[in-house]
Amino acid sequence: MTLRKILPTIFLAMLAATGAAEAKKSLPAAPSKLKVTALGVNAFKLKWKDNSNNEDGWEVLVALKGSKPQHFLYIPRKDITSYTVFTNDLPGYGVVFQLAAYKGEPGKEKSGEISAMVPATGLSPKTFKKPSDLVAKPLDDARIRLTWVDNSTSEAGYQILFREKGVKKWSVLGTVETALKYNIVASGLPPSKEFQFRVRAFSLGGASATPFSNTAAGKTMGLLAPAKLVATPLPEGSFEFKWRDRSSAESGFELQQAIGTGEFAPYWSFSGYNVSKKTLKATLKSLSMNKDLRFRMRAFRVVGTTKTYSAFSNISAQRSTGLNTPSDIAVTARTESTIALKWKDLSSRETGYRIEYRKVNASAFVPVATASNVTIFTLTGLEPDSQYEFRVMATDFFSGSISPEPALVRARTSPGVTGNVNLLVSVGVPFSHTVQLTSVTGLSQISMTGLPAGLTFNPANRKITGTVATTGMVKATVTAKFSDGSTSVRTFYLRSIAPPLAASAFSPVTVASGDSSTVGIAGKFSDSDALSAARFETTSGSFDIIFFPTQAPLTVDNFINYLDDGKYDTMFFHRSVKDFVVQGGGYQYSVATGFKEVVKDPEVTNEPGISNLRGTVAMAKKQFFPNSATSEWFVNLKDNSAGTSALDTTNGGFTVFGRVPESGMAVFEEINAMPRATYSFPFTPQARSLSEVPIDAVSAPTALDPTKLVKVISAGPAPLLTYTVTSLHPAIATATVVANDLVITGVAPGVATLRVTATDLDGQAVNQEMTVTVN
What we know:
The protein is mainly beta. Residues 1-23 have low confidence and may be disordered. The protein contains three helices and 61 strands. An eight-stranded antiparallel sheet has the order 47-48-52-51-53-46-45-56. Strands 3, 4, 6, 7 and 8 form a five-stranded antiparallel sheet that branches.
């Protein structure tokens, strides 16, 4: 018996061999462990191990036993390891299968190496009768009801096939179980299309199937257009739309807009509507301002990736209104770096305000955005003793519209203290720093309070000098008064670093030989460099963040809330800008939950003041919104305080709330050296594209590989000090550290000395000794 007689239809494609060209190195690797299980006379389940990471799909090769397998079909699905192949009926016949991964779009597939051949034998069929009297009756523009007579008693279910009129190939519509009545609705079909249907019974496991029933034809109705569209202008560019819904099959409606005499173009989609023969209403804010507009609408239906449309409704023509400009713009206060503004809100439809400011005679304005319904705002990060001009306009985010420009208002910042206010002091080393002013000639008085012990301020030369003997962070305030009556008040942050201190001595301990004694370490050491800290274990190593709760209390509390809620567990670093920053805190990934965005807490008020120097940790936020920080944060890889970065002044200044010790910076330098790429992440409910994502690989793959992301394994509080103990006389006594206790064991009679070492998060250490007498 020849292959052509056995496989009169399905295997014709096998006669066109795919060729045996040598696979290129870039083609996918061959699958392995191919296993084939016969499910029936025409169904075979394939299972295999996927050894490639770059395939676009799979090529199945089939032949009768004793022949060389030839191309049978392409499976355009990657990252699967099983598939059921349907052939022509082969009851009791031996068949051999092979499998290969391929790359390329349809019609340009290129397969890699082929797996080993695996034999299988089709199962013997059972005898049962085909269904009859199949009838297809249209219900509406997307549904056709199917009914037939059940002539079998041993079937496990029915397989329904369909095809559009004029198409030769049948497609599987679905299967139904025997428990169902054979009166079902084929839904989701495109309107105005004629289809043919046929059905057959199959046995348990799909081992065999009856011949097909008669072929029944049915045509869906056309998608009905909406009617009686009315567009009513509302204040400041908004519109209310009403229309009559005449369809019961639409997925939604598309509103089209034409500006003036221009062409119509899609403007908005109303999804989720399906209320047949009802008057619907929707309000939009996102239309062009002060324009002659024409509107029309049509229904649309989505089936898979296919979108079909109805005819258009009537045209409704109207002119849109515009945004109102705020009035009474005035300056309410000023300092050396700020100007406080107020204005009267005349708009009822703004989504925010755009404040533009610049130095007088400068060419370009600097824009700052605020939220809606705001009537006061303080411009920050300005240069002392400088003349500025500014204006305030209402804005509409949806349409991009902006109110007319008002007249410019001018104000001058006060003279004041300038320069770096974040000072690092080494314990025991002479220190000197000169306080900088914008105007020395206008200075009438200057003073400084709050300096740590050992440092003094000389008003005559404005120098801070001396030697600090203790560690910690201190806030000192400089007050400068000028001849124009203005006063500049700036806060300086002086952080002194030194090893931990031996706070109190260990008392001598007596222990019997062979026995143990426990001594607490708490209170024996102290570290004024750190008040609280967090530790992150990542796929690239561990690092600590030492917090600045005194300088940024709101931000530190906000960060610790995310930490305590576990929202930084499974976080991955999603942004790495070369020699600039590494950013995280916004997104999570795990095998169990997949990709998801970190659930945001309320926004935290900006707390600038500490410079964005190398190793500092700051909150990320939205552009033009200084008080918009939530969960995302970044580590500065260099001095980003001024210059082209200017993070100390841009967008109100970025709040620094902690620092990473130098040992932990090696982790971020490693991340920053990784390749970066742009990927689309499948977040719910909407995918999001992220750029400059660091990838832990030699090169960034084209397709997103979650295993290559730099992820946080765990995050939580970090101990401020860690302890070790060494016995100087181990033959007499030994000791170990358990949590914050010393466990001392007597070995032999005598006197031994134990040396306890406390190490802080900066790697600095201090020793303290204790005496142990063993009886």
